[in-house]
Design goal:
Immunoglobulin-like; 14 helices; about 30% helix
């Protein structure tokens, strides 16, 4: 009889233990083995009370099992327990639309499960200082069997997480040994985006006008677009149109008391016969823009014949006849003059004439904006070649972003975000998310820092090179991506290298030599063609890109700044090489 009761009691305990959710209980109840205290969550106050500490649970150090459970029997905390596995992160509903909440679940390892005393779960923001911990303990008198390795345990809810952010969760098995490597398991995950959690209509950063209609009546161009939902609180918009090197901007403030779904406005100061590329978006920071094209038709004079007197019509006919006679006479004289001079035309003039005729046959094909957003480009470079080289890279990034319709990512422009994430995390994210990667190669890209002799002061370039070893890491990261693409038979159009006039082809690292290489600034049109997937040549046509050709790019302020920066960097590199040559000739 008593054996049956004991078996029933054990089964009830095991059935309660199979529940993956922790119980609310104190350390005292847990130590004494009271009812309802088989698997407990331990809060900060309980740990502070037992250990005599204050406010240290947030540091997430593994707490000594002996102090928490093993004071009566220290043997409870002397065995190894292998790390948990099958860690999963599940998003749960939360009331704050700007934050996310998750629950972590896992399974214990069957190796050493009979000595398992509990778990510690920690959550850390990647690139930040946010840290949260939860502690769960079993009763000291409970011994788990191998069948309990299939039980799924869950943590309490981790709340207040930023949307669209990366976090690392670590589940640690207790007790923690002094010298072992397999007592915990970590996993990196991302929280839900604003659109995934709240829906498209609730996120300002992802909204843009989807409906845009253009109508022209005589000299007036009217644009109609759909307004943002009132719940977003967007009250103003803007429109930018560009053609022939000129840009016009229009501020739009709709009257929300009338039509709340659509709004129409007039585009002003547009030139007739021009093809404009326009962008419209909400007047918000980093708002997504809708791109559309507007062709402004030329206006024909609408004059009715009965408004003219008869003598005016007669004058027009006489003037037209006289004009035709003069034109015919001029053409005849020009033809006769050409025949007279035909025998003495020099070969150079013939070549020039042929070039002029060829140039006249060239057709300028406008670039149509078929992308909703501009392509993204990550520029990588070496910091070991001095400030002049870095200034040339910055001027190149400014020119590409300003005149080549491309969004550029540069570490010196995003130093605050890099300090938050860390260099490796920042580069890994941009290498993964960017449409294209351009590595500006120079002599210092493959340079390895050499230790200076004892007592010899280091110059600024050596200190900069030693303090910024990310050049070598960056080359290896991009090289690994290139090697992975080659081995998988993937397209290499994402990866590019470039050198300035003062660099040589040998400065390109061996890992990046399979990808395409440009020499700047002569190959700016080819770079533009690669970024926008536009062929520069086609049968009977030649694409002319405004502000990028050799004749025009120096006419722009950004182009002049880029040319001057390259000249200064070339001079600085020449002086540096001369100093190095002189130092090599001096005997020891």
């Amino acid at each position: 009889m008593w054996i049956g009761a004991l078996v029933l009691c054990h089964l009830l305990i095991v059935a309660d233990l199979q529940s993956s959710n922790p119980q609310n209980c104190s350390l005292t109840c847990l130590r004494q083995g009271g009812p309802g205290c088989h698997y407990c969550r331990i809060n900060r106050d309980e740990v502070d009370k037992v250990l005599g500490l204050k406010g240290t649970l947030g540091s997430c150090i593994p707490w000594p099992c002996v102090r928490l459970l093993g004071e009566e029997d220290p043997r409870l905390c002397q065995h190894f327990v292998q790390a948990p596995h099958d860690i999963n992160i599940e998003s749960v509903p939360s009331s704050d639309p700007n934050l996310d909440s998750v629950v972590v679940s896992w399974k214990p390892s069957q190796y050493g499960i009979e000595f398992l005393r509990g778990f510690q779960v920690s959550l850390q923001s990647l690139g930040g200082s946010g840290l949260a911990c939860q502690l769960f303990l079993f009763q000291p008198n409970l011994t788990l069997s191998a069948s309990h390795a299939q039980t799924v345990y869950k943590s309490d809810m981790f709340s207040g997480l930023s949307l669209g952010s990366d976090y690392a969760v670590t589940v640690m098995a207790l007790p923690v040994p002094e010298k072992w490597e397999k007592f915990y398991h970590s996993k990196i995950f991302s929280t839900r985006s604003c659109e995934e959690k709240n829906g498209f209509l609730q996120c300002k950063a992802d909204w843009y006008p989807k409906y845009v209609d253009v109508q022209q009546k005589e000299a007036v161009v009217m644009v109609t677009f759909n307004l943002a939902p009132p719940i977003m609180g967007i009250t103003s918009y803007f429109c930018i149109c560009t053609a022939n090197g000129k840009t016009t901007s229009t501020d739009i403030i709709p009257n929300l008391s009338g039509n709340k779904t659509h709004h129409s406005f007039a585009l002003e100061d547009l030139e007739e016969g021009s093809n404009y590329t326009c962008e419209i978006a909400a007047n918000q920071v980093d708002a997504v823009r809708k791109v559309f094209n507007v062709y402004v038709k030329k206006q024909e004079s609408t004059m009715e014949h009965h408004n003219f007197p008869y003598w005016s019509l007669a004058f027009l006919f006489v003037f037209a006849a006289a004009t035709i006679f003069v034109v015919v006479l001029v053409l005849c004289m020009r033809k006769r003059y050409t025949q007279t001079k035909k025998r003495i035309i020099e070969p150079e003039i013939m070549i020039k004439h042929h070039e002029d005729v060829t140039a006249k046959k060239e057709e300028i094909v406008p670039l149509c904006g078929n992308r909703k957003t501009p392509p993204t480009l990550l520029i990588c470079y070496s910091r070991c070649d001095g400030p002049a080289h870095m200034d040339a890279v910055m001027k190149l990034a400014s020119f590409i972003q300003q005149h080549m319709a491309t969004k550029v990512s540069l570490d010196r422009w995003d130093s605050l975000e890099m300090s938050k994430e860390g260099q490796m995390a920042w580069y890994c994210r941009h290498i993964r998310d960017s449409d294209f990667i351009l590595v500006v190669c120079s002599g210092g890209l493959c340079q390895r820092p050499q230790p200076s002799p004892q007592g010899v002061p280091k110059n600024m370039s050596e200190m900069s090179c030693e303090a910024n070893l990310h050049s070598e890491v960056m080359v290896r990261l991009v090289g690994e991506e290139v090697g992975r693409a080659i081995s998988g038979g993937e397209d290499l159009s994402k990866y590019m290298t470039a050198i300035f006039d003062y660099s040589e082809e040998k400065d390109v690292p061996m890992e990046l030599r399979p990808v395409v290489r440009y020499k700047l600034t002569a190959d700016l049109p080819l770079l533009f063609s690669r970024l926008h997937q536009v062929p520069l040549h086609s049968p009977g046509r030649y694409v002319s890109i405004k502000c990028i050709s050799d004749e025009e790019f120096t006419e722009m302020p950004a182009g002049q700044a880029l040319q001057q920066a390259i000249s200064k960097a070339k001079k600085a590199m020449t002086e540096l090489h001369q100093k190095q040559d002189v130092s090599l000739k001096i005997p020891e």
